[in-house]
From TrEMBL:
The keyword Transcription applies. Keywords: DNA-binding, Transcription, Transcription regulation. It comes from Pseudaminobacter soli. Gene3D superfamilies: Winged helix-like DNA-binding domain superfamily/Winged helix DNA-binding domain. This is Winged helix-turn-helix transcriptional regulator. PROSITE patterns: HTH_ARSR_2 (PS50987).
Amino acid sequence: MAYDKAFAALSDPTRRKVFELVSARPRSVARIAGELPISQPAVSHHLKVLREAGLVIAEPKGASNIYRIDPQGLAAIRTWLDRTWEAALDAFQAEFSIEKEEK
């Protein structure tokens, strides 16, 4: 399932923070490292995991890469969440209908 890697990648709190920074606006590794208490190699590692999970993409710019959110990767998560939410609402509606009939 496409979203499994994404959720696994986001399970790490530091990686989530890296993802949140990139989701706010595209950034380089150096910019991200400047905003977190971790080294540039650590940021690069987290970005690699996020990239392999389909959550971010890298765009070469000069001597560095600029990382941004990958809309296709997020679409897989959104699809799963939408399906899960619909199922939960359907179950709630069914339960509410049963209780209403019993009264």
